[in-house]
Amino acid sequence: MPLALPVPYWVDVFSDSSRDGKAGGLCRWILREIRCLSRSAAYNAIMEEPLSEPSPDQTAEPHRMQCMQIWGSNRAIDSAVTMTGIDVRIVSRPFEGNEQGGDVYYLSSCASGRISRILLADVSGHGAQAADVARTLRELMQKHANHISQSRFCERINEEFTASAKLGYFATAVVLTYFAPRETLSVSSAGHPPPLHYHRETGRWSLLAAGDEPAESGRSLPLGITSHVEYSQSSVKLNMGDLVICYSDAFSEAHRANGEMLQSGGLLQLLIDAPVEQPDHVIPWLIDRLRRENAANLTNDDATVALITPNEETVPLRDNLLAPWRYARHLSRGLVKQ
């Protein structure tokens, strides 16, 4: 049965104080939209906080992220996801064809859809052990989905991951946050290889590093080593046609034909010839290119890669209006679990 959402007093005051002119008309329209939506049959579905685990056959149609949704797992996948302002394609292949691997990928959307976040982590372990760590990261992603501050998000994730992780478990991770109103992508690294950024305006690839602090400062420590870590961040404006690739170390530790390790700089060199005008082809091209370079590449570890491209989607008015209720419901669920 649909839930009738009580309209808070400040909306009624706002409407009553602006009855004349264009502002009054706009306020009354917003009020009607809230009341109608709160009584609609779709309200309960809109207000849900689904934890969605993709299946390997989700390759035909992109998955559309909902507000307050967490999407991802540590299983094999080749799937596309659409979020507000960005599209993400993820390909993940666990080591030796196992069902679950040590690479964990999660996407989250905040209560309004303005904050879209991607986490790619390489957990110390495989199979069922890594699955336990993956569930912990998923719960933390959901809990902190509405944090705007990228650095603070990483610090909170690290604090709680360190407290909850089993003895000896840690994870390198890269976290990317897309803030739709400013069209900016922020990146923070916890001991993880840096993302690769293609600038369409210049036609060049570059490393998207998380600040300029050296590793010795502790800002690049993996998650779970110690709870007292400050994580830096860097931000870049994403323009249409730009591409961002994040990846697990199976890619940066791939080798050239002569046995030399590529590292992130070597990946940049390979990507000069990538089909950047056809984003859907970039990941298959990169995987094929690495395998042609050295047949052993991507076979000795879990291998995960994600491609981020901007789209023209904006935050719908409905999602902005419902954001306070979604967030309140999210907080209430957290209190019930405690």
Describe this structure in words.
By secondary structure, this protein is an alpha+beta fold. It has two domains: 1-46, no CATH class; 47-310, PPM-type phosphatase domain (Phosphatase 2c, domain 1, 4-Layer Sandwich), CATH 3.60.40. 33% of the residues lie in helices and 25% in strands. The chain has nine helices and 14 strands. It has helices at residues 9-16, 21-38, 43-46, 127-143, 150-164, 249-252, 263-271, 279-293, 317-337, and strands spanning 51-52, 63-64, 70-75, 77-83, 86-93, 100-109, 115-123, 171-179, 184-190, 196-199, 204-207, 234-237, 243-247, 303-310. The strands form two sheets. It has a seven-stranded mixed β-sheet with strand order 1-3-6-7-8-9-12, covered by helices on one side. It has a seven-stranded mixed β-sheet with strand order 2-4-5-14-13-10-11. A hairpin with a 5-residue loop joins strand 6 and strand 7. Helix 1 runs antiparallel to helix 2 and helix 4 (127-143) packs across helix 5. It is globular. The protein starts with 8 loop residues before the first helix and ends with a helix. Residues 1-20, 33-51, 213-219 and 334-338 have low confidence and may be disordered.
